[in-house]
Automatic annotation (TrEMBL):
PANTHER family: SENSOR HISTIDINE KINASE TRCS, SENSOR HISTIDINE KINASE YKOH
Keywords: Cell membrane, Kinase, Membrane, Phosphoprotein, Transferase, Transmembrane, Transmembrane helix, Two-component regulatory system
Ranges of compositional bias, category Pro residues: 534-543
Name of the protein: histidine kinase
GO molecular function ontology, one term from the record: kinase activity
Length: 554
């Protein structure tokens, strides 16, 4: 079997830091080289100007010298001018001083053998009375020279003076500053290279050695993940301001608009949720309630002073399913209790028949059947909504098992189809189920104080375009001082309560456009009112603090 050849390995792309390093080195080198060239040209130009001024000064000084003027009209100019010109040349540092007649024949020269020879250069302008400079090649090589006329007392040109500096001497004098300039440029290049390397080493650490394409792909994946993940994700900086908030978090917390840099405290979230988001300690699987949702919160610090990662999960449906499961379990318990009671009653009937007391057996069975059927008939006649009727029958059986009478008031009446279309069976179970459960618990706890059988009264009817669900108990009632806190999450008087039942009731009521009222009769009276028509859609905006639903456990 032939082994397929190994696929060619892709050459790793240069990291973004490496690319920037190369670009920055080229830029630094170009800037330093350009600066060095400009500095050299500027220095050369200034030095040439200085040399020209020096040669001009020497030529004019010699041309105006009385010694040169008198010697130029004397019998032997060279004998006087040659030693004088050489002394001035040595004192001034120029390369040569040549004095000549009006025909260009030299009277002086650094090389005495050149005296008497014609001058190699232009003299027409000087003969015309002008002082001019030129660069020409003479006996000493290329040089920069200045030619000035010599006048007699009648202001006639009787001679010429040429003073100059060879280009070789100029190059020698420029060598030292040029070397210094090259040294400075080299040092600047080295320092710039080191600084660039250090900056790019830090950039390489921050980019983890990835290239520009990799970073671009990572950003695309990052954005796609943020917008597609179903969990809410919020990133907070060290000052608890929002750095990032994905779509799921906006939906869960009902946030809108530009949130970058907004402090968590300014989002208008419930106090408990705001406190958890701003807490210094991490939060693990903590349940919080917003105006319309139950969310599971987790926070984790990124690093010391760097910020916090917040994740949110929607537990609204899970909490509703949990409530339904609790209700179903209650139904099962009630059915089990009824089966047990039915078995006991059946044994009693059979025993009466075996004893030959047939009439007593018939009377006993008839009485028990009438008692069981009375509540069922009343509920079925008054409540046409099947879910609500089933819930009431189940809760009645469950309450009876615990020694509590559940009574449906005579004015209760709900026909089938009148419930709001947005009120789901799950919400209905959450509302009435939690109210009845709390009322039964409160009635049992106060049974020793209140005379008679503990009782829970339920009213379910339509009232002026609203669905009214009212549950009253014979418990101790709710302290008026605690009326504002009864819906806070975690508020409970139960020994093992979680404080979520009434919180979910209030949240569900708000979600369906209604509310919960607290009253008092023999015990606590809680009334839920829901509009039969769907509420008008709310304008999206930042979440505002709503009444936080909490369970009032008795």
């Amino acid at each position: 079997m032939a082994v397929p050849p190994n696929p060619p390995r892709r050459r790793p792309l240069r990291s973004l830091a490496g690319q920037l390093f190369v670009v920055q080195i080229v830029i630094v080198a170009a800037v330093v080289a350009g600066g060095a060239v400009l500095a050299y040209l500027f220095t050369e130009h200034r030095y040439e100007d200085s040399v020209r001024r020096q040669a001009t000064t020497v030529a004019l000084s010699l041309a105006d010298s009385p010694t040169v003027r008198e010697a130029a009209t004397g019998p032997d100019p060279s004998a006087v001018i040659q030693p004088y010109a050489e002394q001035v040349r040595q004192d001034t540092g120029v390369s040569f001083i040549t004095v000549m007649d009006t025909h260009g024949i030299r009277w002086s020269h650094p090389d005495p053998a050149r005296i008497g020879e014609p001058y190699l250069g232009q003299i027409k302008q000087a003969l015309a009375g002008q002082v001019f400079a030129e660069t020409a090649t003479g006996t000493l090589g290329p040089s920069m020279r200045v030619v000035a006329p010599v006048y007699d007392r009648d202001h006639h040109v009787v001679g010429l003076v040429s003073a100059g500096i060879t280009l070789h001497s100029i190059s020698d004098q420029l060598r030292a500053p040029l070397l210094a300039l090259v040294g400075v440029a080299g040092a600047a290049l080295v320092v710039g290279g080191i600084g660039t390397y250090l900056a790019n080493a830090r950039l390489r650490r921050h980019t983890h050695g990835m290239g520009a394409d990799q970073l671009s792909h990572l950003y695309d994946y990052h954005q796609a993940t943020l917008h597609s993940v179903r969990e809410g994700l919020i990133l907070l900086d060290g000052g608890r301001r929002i750095v990032l908030c994905n779509d799921a978090a906006r939906e869960l917390l009902a946030l809108a608009g530009d949130l970058d840099g907004v402090p968590v405290a300014d989002l208008g979230l419930p106090g408990s949720l705001t406190g958890a988001l701003t807490a210094a300690t991490p939060v693990r699987d903590e349940v919080h309630l917003t105006a319309e949702r139950v969310v599971l919160l987790n926070t984790s610090a990124v690093g010391p002073g760097l910020g916090t990662v917040v994740t949110l999960r929607d537990h609204t449906e899970l909490q509703g399913l949990t409530g339904e499961l609790d209700t179903v379990r209650g139904f099962a318990d009630a059915l089990s209790a009824q089966a047990h009671e039915a078995a006991n009653r059946l044994h009693a009937v059979v025993s009466l028949v075996e004893l030959g007391r047939h009439q007593e057996a018939v009377d006993f069975a008839t009485a028990e059947l009438a008692l069981a059927q009375r509540l069922t008939d009343k509920v079925v006649d008054a409540v046409g909504e099947p879910v609500l009727a089933a819930l009431l029958l189940g809760k009645a059986a469950q309450a009876a098992e615990r020694g509590v009478d559940l009574v449906l008031t005579d004015d209760s009446r709900i026909d089938d189809g009148v419930l709001p279309p947005g009120l789901t069976p799950r919400d209905l179970v959450t509302l009435l189920g939690n109210l009845v459960d709390n009322a039964v618990d409160a009635a049992i706890e106060n049974a020793a104080v209140h005379p008679g059988t503990p009782e829970v009264t339920v009213t379910a009817r339509t009232d002026h375009g609203e669905l009214l669900l009212r549950v009253a108990d014979t418990g101790a009632g709710i302290d008026p001082a605690a009326a504002t806190d009864v819906f806070h999450r975690g508020w409970t008087t139960k020994q093992h309560g979680r404080g979520l039942g009434l919180a979910l009731v209030a949240q569900t009521a708000r979600r369906n456009g209604g509310g919960v009222e607290i009253g008092r009769d023999r015990g606590a009276v809680l009334t839920v009112r829901l509009p039969l028509r769907p509420p008008a859609p709310a304008v999206p905006g930042p979440a505002v603090p709503a009444a936080r639903a909490e369970e009032a456990a008795r």
